[in-house]
Amino acid sequence: MSLFVASRTALRASAPLKKSFQLCNYATEPTPSSSNLNKYLAGLGAVAVGAGAYFYAGSSPAAKKAEEKVKDAIADKVSTPPTKAFTGDWLSLKVDEVEQVNHNSKRLRLKLPEENQVSGLDVASAVLTKFKPEGAEKAVLRPYTPISDEDAKGYVDLLVKKYPNGPMSTHLHELKPGQTVDIKGPLPKYPWSANKHEHIALVAGGTGITPMYQLLRAIFNNPEDKTKVTLVFGNITEEDILLKKELTKLENTYPQRFRAFYVLDNPPKSWAGGKGFINKDLLKTVLPEPKNENIKVFVCGPPGMMDSISGNKKSPKDQGELNGILKELGYAPEQVYKF
């Protein structure tokens, strides 16, 4: 067998390596030790010799040069981290998949420029979409928090609810695979780190669940993070509850650390959860008490809900005054964050 064929045989044998050393969720996997890498290279050598490529066992300069090329190729696959797609510039990403989630919400999978890229978003952060309607003087800008893992390679998923008079949501709902979305990021929100707070509460309404889900993924995908989480999630009907399957899975997997409470404006007769709006009695009962120092309450939802629970923020960089139910219950401004 020629040296060229032997090298190609060895390189084919190395193909599973990419799959074996993919990055874990929210934690960078350490580079394999030199001993493990040597064992793997020894395996490659055995395969090559078994195929009649005795060059690897010999001492000819050509054989050694070929072996070094194989080692370099393996080292590149092992040590090169994926690049980040979102670096602050506008991108035009192709729509790869469209899934109808419920009567007014869709999941859009956007393809990143390179298959080996990750979004590059931190937790918690969002992206900004841009669309200029025909005849309009200015473009419409709307932020979205992706629901895909931050280390997912090659794509990013947006969960988009269509509003009757929403130009951006209507535009995104009309897109088909192959069309593009103008998007950029990251838009930094609340910097999260493992065990930053002992207990956090997430008070969400409608699509306000997306930044909450981003936090949930970061916490429960990290075995070092022991944070307790309480979710209060308000919607109009049962069909409007987004990510219900994912939330239920988390609750069943971590029953000692995660509890979810659902409230519906128009519940069915069989509904066993809360009814009406998220109110003071419910929050007083289920949220961690404000006297506990190392807690945080996150709030995200439509303006009316925000007014009632915490008051709206003034701008992306100005949280505004703390008002509403949380102020009445005795929470301090530094204990509350408005997405």
Automatic annotation (TrEMBL):
InterPro entries for this protein: CBR-like, Cbr1-like_FAD-bd_dom, FAD-bd_FR_type, Flavoprot_Pyr_Nucl_cyt_Rdtase, FNR_nucleotide-bd, OxRdtase_FAD/NAD-bd, Riboflavin_synthase-like_b-brl
Binding, FAD: 142-144, 159, 161, 168-169, 210
Domain FAD-binding FR-type: residue ranges: 88-193
Cofactor needs: FAD
An annotated GO cellular component: mitochondrial outer membrane
The keyword Heme is assigned to this record: no
CDD domains, sorted: cyt_b5_reduct_like
Keywords noted in UniProt: FAD, Flavoprotein, Membrane, Mitochondrion, Mitochondrion outer membrane, NAD, Oxidoreductase, Transmembrane, Transmembrane helix
Catalytic activity: 2 Fe(III)-[cytochrome b5] + NADH = 2 Fe(II)-[cytochrome b5] + NAD(+) + H(+)
Entry keyword Oxidoreductase: yes
Localization: Mitochondrion outer membrane
GO molecular function terms noted in the UniProt entry: cytochrome-b5 reductase activity, acting on NADH
Entries under PROSITE patterns matching the protein: FAD_FR
Physiological role: May mediate the reduction of outer membrane cytochrome b5.
Family: Belongs to the flavoprotein pyridine nucleotide cytochrome reductase family.
Name of the protein this chain belongs to: NADH-cytochrome b5 reductase
Species in which this protein is naturally found: Podospora fimiseda
